[in-house]
Amino acid sequence: MISPKARKRIQVFLIHVLLAIWLVISVLPPIMLLAASLNASALFRSPWDLLLLRDFSIENYTTAFVAGDFWFFFANSLIISTASVIIVLVTCVPMAYGLSTISDRARNAISFGILAMRFIPYVVLALPLFLLFVNLGLAGSRVGLLLAHLAIHIPFATWMLVGFFDAVPRELEESGIIDGCNAWNLFWDIAVPVVRSGIVALAILVFIMSWNEYLFALFLAGSNAQPLTVGITRFLGGIESGAQYGVIAAYSVLVILPVIVFSLVANRYIVSGMTAGAVKG
Amino acid sequence: MLVIVGVPLALGFRYSMHRVFLYDFNNQIFKGLDNYAYALSDPLFIKALNTTIIFTLGCVATGILFGLLVAFLLNSRKVRWRPFWVSLFLIPFVMTPVVGGIAWRFFMWQQEFGVINAIGGIFGADARYWLLDRETALFASIVSNSWHLTPLSILVFYAALSTIPDELYDASHIDGAGPFQTLWYVVLPLLRPHVLFVSVILLTSAFREFDMIWALTGGGPGRSTTVLSILAYNRGIANQDMGMANTIAFTMFAIMAVVAWIYITIYRRMLEKST
Known about the structure:
The structure holds 2 protein chains of 2 kinds. Chain A is mostly helical. Chain A has helices at 4-37, 47-51, 59-67, 70-101, 104-117, 122-136, 142-166, 170-178, 183-194, 196-212, 215-220, 228-233, 245-265, 267-280. Chain B is mainly α.
């Protein structure tokens, strides 16, 4: 017979085994990319050989930087993502604060509209924007691509921030008014510091969303504005011949490196941002 | 905000009622609802609609199921290193979907040297051409996309579970409920709003998915993984038929509008019940 205590222990052990299996499933694709990128040529090798780095080389990375025009695409990605974050913070933080202070009725109507926008399939926006930008002369420019990103980010960010501002205790504001704060003080010195970690979470999420975005980039970016996500797919055309598996892997690793680092360093913020919506529904 | 979303929507709706070709852009003819009528009678459109529905439901079901499962495991008593698990479980979600698609295509599903066939080989399964086979390409796309989406549902469910106090489990244990009864009658009802929320987020994001499938299969083989987003892209950019592309996009929009309406109705009813 197994004692109840031993049974508990086996149970806990099994739970850890299952979690470890899920962990392997989660990280295996990126690990395979990393492994393949560090082998001389990833062609004709079993996964096992790749993981053991039987044919170690960093040549793929030098090829990716040079042949892949890495820094050009990197600059586009970085400019668009950073600009998105800055514009979203400057416009949405005050807007969300305003929304959270006005009457419930007006707010419900507006937040319903914002919620509705989250249901819009991106392709519905991308097609007309493509034609509109051709007419306005914005086609293929970073500005056009940035505007498209903002169309997605601003509703999302406002929705999330209103939730954060709603959680600021009323008493805090009331005591602020008694202490003689004006409207700007109430916003900047009282409300914003309370929701600071929410704002950080939002900034990180917006950066990651912009960095990862592909559909708009494919539709709207001309050759001058293409971000890394488009840069990498240029390799795919000739891939079936197989010679470039290692280079593709190296390029992939470079593309995901910033977001993976973000998610490891700042995962507390990302998790809070992702679950914030759920609490409010 | 209204301008940046409203103008393209209005324009798109206008284009969806016209005959608009990129190579003949100045010669637009009003067609009314003819484009919609044509789309609905077009077997390719119907096929893409079917594919989209299967893809979406597959992703939602897988995402919810594995999300609940992993969240329960994470929330079990005596689980160690919780922050460690959470931070690594997050990776599929933050990873660029296009790159995720590339990783799965060349290193997981790949027929000769991919991980899936290698693992299958250990158990004596025959190697399959997962992404090149009409029968399995859609299944493989669903698996890959679910891999990308599941972290969201894990995190939301885990956050919800960790707010349930231990006393509740103790109370149900004292009342004589087994672990499965506790799960079914105590825990799941408490999670209902979160399941609703997660399924809507997964549904909207799977319904419009483009990046992952585009990188995995490009819509092929044949048209077995051509979802509506990809069909709209092919029509609009490749065939330069912007009128039809906008019609397809607007049909997607209409479907999502109905989904949004259903979601909000259910959500309101739930709120009324709970108060």
